[in-house]
Amino acid sequence: MSALIDVIVVGGGPAGLTAASYLRRFHRSCLVLDAGDSRARWIPESNNCPGFPHGVSGAELLRRMREQAFSVDARIEDASVDRIVPCDEGFEVGADARTWRARKVILATGLRDRLPDASWVPEAVACGALRLCAVCDAYEASDQVIGVHGPGDAIGAHAKYLRAYSPAVHALPLDADDGGAAGAEARAAGVEWQSGGGRLEFDGRRCRYVAPDGASVVLDAVYVYLGHDTNAGIAARAGAALTPEGEIIVDGDQKTRLDGLYAIGDVVSGLNQISVAVGHAAIAATHAHNALPFVARKTENPR
Ligand SMILES: Cc1cc2nc3c(=O)[nH]c(=O)nc-3n(C[C@H](O)[C@H](O)[C@H](O)COP(=O)(O)OP(=O)(O)OC[C@H]3O[C@@H](n4cnc5c(N)ncnc54)[C@H](O)[C@@H]3O)c2cc1C
Prior knowledge:
The protein is α/β, with parallel strands linked by helices. The chain contains 8 helices and 17 strands.
């Protein structure tokens, strides 16, 4: 039987790594189990991340966060957790044949963006031609030619939102839907509503939208709104409640309805941001620490 760990953190993105650093700094035993597919890896350069006035890539940010967690002896193992089962001491957490036991579990499993089905997508995201988060980086697209791609009934409000950043915003609907009231508002705000059902191309630097009649527009940045899927299946199977959108429901301490199970980051939030994820982590880790049994410190080297 494996040793009982104070807290297992499932997910090693910004939320999970921050929780691990906090827990180790509370002198709690902590294990991060991570499937290694953080959404942050897609970030070419973040410019709204506190403390990085000249920007930071997602890969570099994750590297630093792991280094910070390792500096306080956090353990991180590669594992794709497939079950969390409540038990007398807390939880059994499993990945294939491996099982760990913990008093508390913090879920930081994030979400997966739905992306256009094209082989060039990773390259287009890497160079900023294709984007997934206007809150993150629309500022950098100010005054550029911006596209907004997705179902007609979903992109109107996003297109209007982006009109605050540029006079040249094109709605690029996947279908013939005119966006209803939101589409009308976007057009009234100056958004060019292209005819739907065209195709998106990428030339290695920028995207081009080609309408069904052959008319085309070249775009400096295209925001994609195809939705996402939260990685909340294991939480639901364990007994946590989800919103209709699949986000884990938590209270102000990041607690799910299952005693001892917390959830943080994109798998919870409507505002999917690094600063929100690390804020959740601080709250959950601190609450978990205070809820664990008190342990007076023993040391062989008193100061
Ligand atoms: C292109 C792009 C640009 C962005 N730019 C910015 C920006 O500039 N500023 C900003 O604030 N935010 C930005 N974001 C959003 C940011 O990346 C997320 O808000 C952030 O990564 C959320 O952190 P998280 O730890 O909650 O989830 P994630 O970073 O997604 O980490 C979740 C981790 O959990 C793991 N996991 C999932 N399921 C399991 C399982 N069953 N077992 C074990 N591990 C599991 C995953 O593999 C992953 O490693 C951007 C996102 C994208 C895609």
